[in-house]
Structure to design on (73 residues):
């Protein structure tokens, strides 16, 4: 998955029009454990990386997620 697709898919999961690498993905009103799980599934299926809940917890920005997922910016 390339960076643009990652950003688009992340925005879709967060139900916002768009995100940037600097976006604090936890700041949105829809952030909850189900959204965290959906991000983990997306990263597993699209990037081939299995992240734990702790991995997601350690991320604050979309750039952090991209790095954890192995997606180049």
């Amino acid at each position: 998955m390339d960076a643009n697709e990652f950003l688009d898919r992340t925005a879709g999961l967060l139900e916002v029009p768009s995100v940037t690498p600097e976006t604090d993905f936890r700041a949105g009103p829809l952030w909850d454990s189900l959204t965290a799980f959906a991000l983990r599934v997306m990263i597993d299926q699209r990037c081939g990386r299995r992240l734990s809940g702790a991995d997601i917890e350690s991320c604050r920005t979309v750039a952090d997620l991209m790095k954890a997922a192995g997606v180049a910016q």
Q: What stands out?
A: Helices lie at 3-14, 33-47, 53-57, 62-69. The first helix runs from residue 3 to 14. The CA atoms of residues 2 and 39 lie 16 Å apart. DSSP finds four helices and no strands in the chain.
